[in-house]
Structures are given as C-alpha cells and as structure tokens.
Amino acid sequence: MEENKYVIGLDLGGTNAVFGLVDENYEIKATGSLLTQEYTLATAFVEDAAEVISELSSVAGGIENIKAIGIGAPCGNYNAGTIEHAANISWGKGVVPICQMLNEKTGIPVAITNDAKAAALGEMSHGAAMGMKDFIEITLGTGVGSGIVANGNLIYGSDGFAGELGHSIMFFDNGRKCGCGRSGCLDMYCSSRGVVMTAKEMLAEEGAQSSLANIPADKMTTLDIFNAAEAGDKLAQMVFRRTGEILGKACANFATFLSPEAFIFFGGVAKAGDWLLKPAKETYDKYVLSLYRGKAKFLTSTLENGTAAILGTAALAWQETAK
Amino acid sequence: MEENKYVIGLDLGGTNAVFGLVDENYEIKATGSLLTQEYTLATAFVEDAAEVISELSSVAGGIENIKAIGIGAPCGNYNAGTIEHAANISWGKGVVPICQMLNEKTGIPVAITNDAKAAALGEMSHGAAMGMKDFIEITLGTGVGSGIVANGNLIYGSDGFAGELGHSIMFFDNGRKCGCGRSGCLDMYCSSRGVVMTAKEMLAEEGAQSSLANIPADKMTTLDIFNAAEAGDKLAQMVFRRTGEILGKACANFATFLSPEAFIFFGGVAKAGDWLLKPAKETYDKYVLSLYRGKAKFLTSTLENGTAAILGTAALAWQETAK
C-alpha cells in the first residue's frame, strides 16, 4: 500500500492562525484555525496548535503521515526557527523558539519563515515562478515585503532576515517618515498605505477634479483608487503611475544585485495590474543598466490570495522533507 | 604515490593575461603571461594560451595533474562560459565562448567569471571571508564591482551578470553622468575616478586651502588624496568622508537584500582604510534598518593585490573540480 504523505501549512497572523493539511499536489485537504490574539503565552498557543494538528492528522490517516510543518509568520526567522519581536503577535514579543516548541509537542519537523518568503516558495513550487532559479517576489500589501530566490534557493542571509526590500531607501532626502524609524523607504510609497498617501497628496495638489475627492480621507483604500482609475479618473490613474515609477526605479537597482529572470508582484496593490505595472516596467526599462534591459519579466502572482499563505508554507514544509 | 593536483588561475586583463599554476594550499608554483592586446583573434589567443598552460604543466608533473582552469575577465559570464562585449579586450568584442575553446585545446575543464566575483571566491577560500556564507565583496578600483555570496554560493543571476552593485543608482536626480549611459551610479562616486572627481569638486568649492590644489587636475590620483589625508589635509580627509557617506548609504540598502555577515572592500580606493571606512560604517549605522544594525562587519580585503586575481580564479577552478 502506498504511503500517504502530507504536510501542514500554518499561516500565522496577528489575528488568526490558519492550519492547512496539504498533499504533494498542493491540494488543501482540510483546515483548522485558532485565534492568535487570544493567547498571551506562546506555550499555551503551541499546546492548542498541537491539538489542531492532531485533529488534522486523522484526515491524513495518522500523525505519521504528516512529514513536516511549515509556518509563515511576521518576523519568522528561518535560520533560528524563531519568531522575534513580532509587534502584532500577542505572545511574540521576545524571541519565541516556535519550531522547537512545536516539534517537541508533535514530533514533526517544523520550519518557519515570513509571509513574503513563503509566497516566493509558493510561487516557485506551484505559481508564476515554476522552473525559475533567480527571481524576486515583491509583496505589495499593508507593507512591502520580498522573497529573493538565487540559484534556486531562498536567500535568508546571515541572520535569517535577508530580503527586506520594502525598507530599501528610495529617497535619502525628504522621504516620507517610515514606521521603521527612518525615511524614504520603498514601503512608504508602494504599500497600500503609501498609495493612499500619494492619492491624498495629489488631491491636495490637483484639487477636486477627481472622484476620489468625494471619499473621506480616512476611509480611502487602494481598491477605491483602482475603481476610480478603471472608471477613467485621471488623478487615480496618475496615482498608480507615480507609484509604478518609484517601483520601477527600485527594481532597476534590485536588478544590479540578482539580474533576476522575473519580478513577481503579489498582494492587494498588485491587483491594480497594468495601471501600476505598465509605468513600473517603462520606468524600469528607462533606468535599468543596459546589460539587463529587456531580460526580466514583470509578472503578477498566480497564487490565490486566500490560499497563498498556506500553500507557501506547505512549500516550505515540503522543502524541509527533501533535506 | 600521492597525486599532485593543481589548477591554473588566469587573470585576463585588457593589457596582460597572467597565468598562475596554483596548488591546493593556494600557493602559486609558477607563472606565465601573454600580452592580451597583441591578439586580434580569440582563436590565436587561445592557441598561445594553451601553449603557456602546456609549459606550466611541466612544473606540475604533467598536464593530467592540472584539474581545472579558472579565468577572471571583464564581462566574463560564468553561466555561459563566455566573454561578452568586452570593450577593453582587443579580441573580445562579440560573444567569445572562451571556456569551450580553451577546453578543446587543453582537454581541461574551464570556468570563467569577472574579477570582482573572482575576488569574492578568493576571499572565501583564503581571505577575509573564510567560513562566511553570506557576504558582499565590493571592489573599489578604476570602477566599482561586486561579488555577492549567499548561502555559501556566488550569485550569478539569470544571465550570469548578477552583482553589478557599482551601477546601483544612488542619485536618481542630478547624479554624475556614468560611462554606462545613465547617471548617479555608485561607481561615479566610489571608484578611483569618482574620488578624484569629488576632490576636484571640493577644491572648486573650498578654494586653495588644500595641498591638493598644487597637483595638476589631470594628474591627481586616489593615492595623492590618501597621502594628503594622512598628512593632515582637511579637504582630502573630507573627500574620503563624502565618499564613505555615499558608500555607507549604498551598503545600508544592500543589507536589505542579503543581510550579510560582512562587507569586504578590495582595491585601490579601499586602501584609504579608516579615512573611508569609518565614515562609511558610521553612515551605514545611521541609515541601516534597525533589524540589521550592529550585525555586518566592514572589513578590508586580506587578499594581496598582486596575487588576488590569480588566486581568486584558482578558487573558481577548485570549485569546478568539486562538482
């Protein structure tokens, strides 16, 4: 009888922790969840997590069929197997050796990384980067994150925290103040917050010629701006153009590092599609070193938003089983 | 009887091609050379190169003791085994499949890369990066080059040309015009040319309070500026400070990519030592993401200028024999 092999992908966010039982074809066979924020102690969370995994294992035909657990979490450190100083996880303030803790409870190998790196792994195993060995996944969501793959492997760096391209400084002078304490980071221009900030700045500059002027400033979202752009609103279209221009310049510099086969964009802001990526690519072509011109593709992720995190962490887990 | 194993390291420049017979302890046992610029055809160069290698093989106790050849050359493409559009090699204008050609003449496996990547390999095998798996070698010479090592391997990228950090744009607006056709590249500020340009700009700004004012502008070198700085010349010291500040900002952005264990500086400009690296490190600490602060070392290369290129390409060759 053939052995059934599964992994668990765990998408660990500040609010919810979603567990998926995933097979070798990246099909999600069953899911479970916990409320991350209900716990104040990591030990209590791990105890209940082991319980959920045990329940999922019955679908898998026994715990022995679960070969690895992959976790995607903010401030997840692959090298150390820890969550470090995660501001938005109620029990993640210090350094939590989550992999070791969960391994001790379940007996299953556990690996962790952050959400952008998990997305890159997902892209490589079953998304837009299948077959690629050198690419840069850029997540454009609440923040800007990245997962960098070189020679077919994720780059973790000396401390596990490589690939924070959202905090590459685009404006050393007069840049927008960033949550990281510095100014001018890419994040402040190409995250959903950044795009809304640009819209507000342009509304203040250009006056009320835009339908966006009717939206209360504190309620405006990237989706509103996208809808306005689609409806022909010139200012909204220009917001994405400005955003894309900054993104294109950033990618021109990223190319000098990796000369990637592709930049792959994932997340809410990337859903703006050509409104964003066309000016980004044009600006990239203008600013990139001629040696690289015309080589890298600009792609949108083919991962589904709802399942990307679980399948990305499942890819991390499968990678662990191959070691 | 124990087998004697050697490799050939070939430092292929626009003027000279220097061949070294190198043993497993990175000792150079014999050398030979050709005048690169005397040849107009790659085939003629390769023919004579095979001759030199044959002569060196007698020192090695026979051609069968030479296990691989490593070449370091401008525009050397590891992935393709080619020299591509090398402006300063008389026979390197198109795409020259140098590895295949030399392999056919000698029967020995041949690999190629550029000089900065060869320096990084040398640093890792017998220099300042021994034992490191994630570091960035930055060569500060006539130009600014780089070799990036992640997960213990050089990054070559999708086309073999990854790691052109000298062409990372530091000033998108009002930057110095670069030889690459764009403006504001790191190269234009931290290469020897860049440092001299900064000195001339500052002399124009600050007047003749500096001993550098006595040197004809077209004769000034980085060494002159270094000597002046050592002798207490404030303007010369400030030239290295400005250079270091730009270098430090650049490295702060490079950190978001790799989170390296170290930045290692090689080449003529790096010989300015603390005049350059102290302000570079201070600026780095100021601008780097707090997550990385205090982690990466700023080191000067421990490779000897005279032998670095040969031993770096020897490291490339030894790497090939391990495949």
From TrEMBL, chains A, B:
Matching Gene3D superfamilies: 3.30.420.40
Keywords annotated in UniProt: Kinase, Transferase
Taxonomy, superkingdom: Bacteria
Gene Ontology molecular function: any one: kinase activity
Claim: Transferase is one of the keywords in the record: yes
The keyword Transferase is assigned to this record: yes
Annotated family: Belongs to the ROK (NagC/XylR) family.
Protein's UniProt name: Glucokinase
Organism, scientific name: Prevotella pectinovora
